[in-house]
Amino acid sequence: MPSTKKIIDTLTSNNAKAYFSKLYGDNHGVIDGQIQRYQGIADVFITEFPKQNKLDFFSAPGRTEVGGNHTDHNAGRILAAAVDLDIAAAAAPNNEGVIRMHSDGYPPDFIDLSDLEVRIAERYSSTAIIRGVAARFKQLGYRLGGFDAAATSLVPKGSGLSSSAAFEVLIGLILSHFYNNGELDPVLLAKIGQYAENQYFGKPCGLMDQTTSAVGGFVAIDFNDFENPIVQQVRFDFAASGYTLVIVDTRGDHADLNDEYTALENEMKAVAHALGGKVLREFSAQAVLEQMGVLRGQVSDRAILRALHFYGDDQRVVEQVRALESDDFPHFLDLIIESGYSSWMYCQNVFAPNTVQKQELAVALAASQGYLQGHGAWRVHGGGFAGTIQAFVPSTMLTGYVEMMENIFGEGACHLLRVRPVGGVKMQG
Fold it and tell me: Is the whole-model pTM more than 0.85?
């Protein structure tokens, strides 16, 4: 087992500090805090796996959706960004054909790699994700082996920052580096994570979350070809913009929302089917408008409105990327607001139809508009219906905005985020 002194020497080396600076920012207090955090992960690893004689550190970030709300599943475009809240792990391979995972705050996971069949009883668990990632490695012909790991997460569960995607990318990274010389590229790792979430975890999702976590930075993704999405890192120095990205957790209940997410995707696709295709990207907004009278006899009105949202937000992603690349941040903020209004009016994912008495997201959006009008931007974040909103807040207004939101939703409701320029990594000490 590696000595505590050796681990500390590794974590405090110049190379490690440079990595911490890239992942978490160059504030000395932040770097010192991360050194202590990784030391704590190593301490858990040493305690849980005393027979191991080495360890490596891995990190996979959460993500924030910036543009393209519910566009990915209909072959649309999205803009997202990796953030400085991550899942970090200490891990080492074993020769026992099992994966043992100790995640802070959760029961330990144990997966026998000789049994990688889907287990319905494991749905919605971390065990299902690990089993699913391992199964996909095997199906694709990559080498597979056991490992021991201890992990801790800064990505709040249910925050809309995709803790599950970060976990999937983390497991894929570990298997890639321990058994495949780190040769799996970020997009492939993302696809493997999506497969595990869809087939094993039991949640329908697109590929945005996993791709952003794996790639890092601002990421524009075009899903016109699902098997070969076009991934573009967008060059923009958000830290120099004078704004802070705030995710507000409205403390809404995410339970039993899978049917809402499934209906949203299916309704958009129902419009495409009625037009003679599979996904909305095959057609134009004009086609929907011209056929609206006929469509109303085949699909619901809500489906038509959600289709119109798709076309608006899909095009806004193109304009958002152009605005960032040309350093036109005011126009970028206008597009954020437009996206938010479209999600509320057309996509209709600000609250669920059966919870009209509880509209936390709507309250947060209304409060944000009242406070930031003319000075920032706000929109629903992620899947919607409950959970979080996103706001771009001028630094001069940040203290007041946080105070207002935490008076409404409670202490700790606001997460102040930094865009992380890199995705999932094995740390080089």
Answer: yes
